[in-house]
User: Fold this.
Amino acid sequence: MNSKNKLFSAITYLNPTSLKNLSDQIMVLIESKLWAKILIAMFLGSVFGFCLSTSGPFPNFVERHLTSIESLMAWLAVPAQFFLKAIKMVIIPLIFSSIIRGLASTSDVSQMKSMGINFSFFVIINTCLASLLGVFLTTILKPGVGLGLKGVTEGASNPGHVFSFGPETIIGILPANPISSLVEGQMLDVVILAIIAGVAFLSIENEKAKGAIETLGLIQEICMKIISWAMKLAPYAVFGMLAQVTASAGLKSLQNMALYVLVCFTGFTLFIMFYLLLVFLTKKQSPLSFLKAISTPLLLAFSTSSSAVTMPVSMKVAEDELNVNPETARFLIPLGTTVNMAGSAIWHTSAVIFISQAYDIDLSYSQILFVVGTSIASSIGSPGIPGVGVGILASILVKIGVPIEGVSLILGVDRIVDMGCTVVNVAGDLTATKIFSKTVPNKQYPITL
Assistant:
């Protein structure tokens, strides 16, 4: 047995049983009671928030007690903040250790190399199509036209001077300070570092690698335990988030805001259908069968707006429900959680053009191309946690000379759109895992995050 096969055997032996037990516990929570709690929390949070909005049934009461209501909403958001911070706290070490172990456990290096190259092309083409779809739908339906907003533009009006591609861009892909990347949560740097480290593990002797692999397994177990604690807060977090959003937006979502949401969800739906078609053409699995198999992680993604939270469940579903090779699930899903963000690309381009239309700013073809390119680049590597897209959107607006305060237009419905966006991201990860994996029928593998 060569050293790589020995390493694979050692990793299989070192997989802690508790990881599977923890994953099973999360699935039990979702499939039995948690999903119902989340759906109820979504409904109650929306109703409660609407009742305390200025466009709700008690506008006079709300006006008189506006300060107290704002304070109440801040307190209701506390569980959500704890929930999100708990996930943020562990997502970097979880992704880092998952990718390294996924690569180190492969028994076929050439197959993993081929899979990585194919997945890279999948992500690039996928994200490009998603960005163009967002541009097309927003340009055709024109959700922002007619608002006639006024604002002060700042930043660059000529995107040609903002972005350039050269040798420095390629060199800049490699993280100069790996420790700083880990501490600061530079997701793309972390993924690149983990891939390099995982490949390096393949060339290390079994005995030398054993201790490090065991330590990474312990890190994964700790992260999974924290995630299982955070999941118990999910219903309260969802209630607080939706109550806060609905109270601030109310029904002033006007016709334009409703149309903007419609544009986004039309794009999301079309892309989900695209994924179902891909699976049917490549794996001959019926769309309804595939959709049913991945329904649990999609529901969790919609409820939490976080592909990072959904990642452990997606890995388990990929192995148990889709019957894919566990090496693929361990490698592609953590990687896809970081770089495969088609939903985010649709959201970015739709939001930018919507805000531009609201300010009666006609974007040139070069500006639209810049928006598409920036959306692709920013989508790849953006953290899989809710709310991060707003910061990315603001930076794009500044660079094309659109008033940055236009971001406030979408804040009221950002949570709703982010839910659909996350569903597309998670569906894309599971689709890629299914497409690039060898099916393993009638065999259950222990999940090794």
Observations:
- The two ends are 25 Å apart (CA to CA).
- Residues 3-16, 155-165, 442-449 have pLDDT under 50 and may be disordered.
